From TrEMBL:
Ranges of biased composition (kind: Basic residues): 1-11
Keywords, sorted A to Z: Coiled coil, Nucleus, rRNA processing
Claim: Translocase is one of the keywords in the record: no
Compositionally biased tracts (Polar residues): 18-37
Domain of life: Eukaryota
Tagged with keyword Repressor: no
Biased composition (Basic and acidic residues): 66-80
Protein name: rRNA-processing protein EFG1
Family recorded in the similarity comment: Belongs to the EFG1 family.
């Protein structure tokens, strides 16, 4: 009975599809890894003692670049968050100032 139900759902019908296996250490399925995850991976690699000096220097440079990119991303996210938070407040303050200017202009013309 189980097989009959599974066949209805299409699980046993048709040939099996083999999915390509990800190669070691490369992006998987086109998904980008976060800066934090990349930094963590490089730091783990640098903890190994038997790493060649040339490779170690390249990875340290890559680590430094990733940290700078992460800081820039965090800074821009914070600026964006604050801009959206205070957008309404700035709008109302601007309207208040415009009203005051109009009142003063009207007084000056009288």
């Amino acid at each position: 009975m189980k097989h009959k139900n599974m066949a209805k759902k299409g699980r046993l019908l048709g040939p099996r599809q083999n999915k390509p296996q990800p190669s070691g250490g490369v992006q998987q399925s086109g998904k980008l890894r976060s800066f934090k995850n990349q930094i963590r991976g490089i730091e783990r690699l640098l903890r190994k003692e038997d790493l060649e000096p040339r490779v170690r220097a390249a990875k340290e440079q890559q680590l430094q670049q990733l940290k700078e990119k992460q800081e820039a991303q965090q800074r821009s996210e914070r600026e964006k968050r604050l801009a959206t938070k205070y957008h309404k407040i700035r709008f109302f303050e601007r309207v208040k100032v415009e009203r005051q200017i109009q009142k003063m202009m009207a007084k000056q013309q009288q």
